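User: Hi! I'm working on a homework problem where we have to compare a predicted structure to a textbook description. Could you give me the structure for the chain below?
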Amino acid sequence: MTWSGRNQALNALPTQADVERMLQEAGASYTVKRVPANAVLFWEGEAHPNHYYLIEGTVEIYKVDAAYRKRAIDFYGPGAFFGFQFLTDSALPMTTARTCEDSRIIVIPRESYFKALHGSPDFADASVRYLFGLLSMQTDEVISASFYSASQRVAMLLLTLAEDLPAGSEPLLPYGNAEVAEMLGLSRNSVTASLSRLANQGIVEKRRNTIAVLDMNKLRAVAQLGAEG
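Assistant: Happy to help. Predicted structure tokens:
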């Protein structure tokens, strides 16, 4: 997953200047837009003609099941491409995309996306590498769900999120139990029990809608036990 807001399979993501240069090089049209918090960019199952590059802000990607239960699939941060639905013939998104905060986005119409794909080798390379990165992370998530316990998966996720915080900042993760459960596809009770065990070991502390990491070394040791099986 890309809960940290970046494609973890890539060393670097294209900047806004990179993306605009590639689009202009191909003669592809695009629009830079400011989008308020809680705006839906596209709905699951409704044909949508645009592709997006996130300049700043956060976008949640989620699904709603038959019982109207929402499941967060991913959170995208600056540098993310999303809205690949028009690579299918139907152009029907499998998920819904919503801004979590005021954001700035490059909107690329379908015809312009393909124009850039064919007219800019750099854009084609960036798109293929980004899609491969997403596929790699989704494969890792399937492996994690298959082989690791709930407690190990919680520790591994917390470590990933904590390590992606800006250097020198307090290791305080802005998530509650329900959000961690959504991220991992686990029950809230499983996540609560896992966090309680970590808290009892002095590794984390639950605060109001946040999780404070008290001991990164111990958390890393627990997570590595999961990663090593």
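For your comparison, note the following. The mean pLDDT is 87. The longest strand covers residues 50-56. Good luck with the assignment!
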